[in-house]
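Researcher: Structure prediction, please.
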Amino acid sequence: MDQADTALTRRTIFLAGGLGALAVAAAGMATAAESSGAEKANLQLVKDFCKAWGDDPPDAEKMTNQYLAEDCVIRFGETIAPVSGQAAAIELFQSFLNSGQRYDLKILDTFTRGPVVVNARIDSTIKNNRITNPTKVIGVFLVRDGKIKEWSDYV
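Model: Predicted structure follows.
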């Protein structure tokens, strides 16, 4: 082999390094775009779930099946024991909805980081078209495979 064929020059090293950096940057941009798309989907899922509490009437079973993972964990604050699984979530939700109440979960601020969605809300009770008991809440949601796996509220 001729030495001219195998010789590395500054130009070839620079070109190879530049192409490598370009490939790394392009891969990073694709990952960021995918992450951004997933985060937007997670955010929309949580927004839709919060909105469903205001349906007239809210349907605990429908909300659970549509938005929550089968092995979900729900924590409604520090004073209420967490529940696990869809059946327990339906029972918990129904305990809040049995008396004909529904809820307005007004999202004030929200952000996502990967599978985690955090929102600051004011949750109010709606009964007989009257809104009462506004309560400031921080909700933390973990989304996996397009469903809410964990939901914790802090008052």
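Model: The first strand starts at residue 68 and ends at 75.
Researcher: Thanks, that helps.
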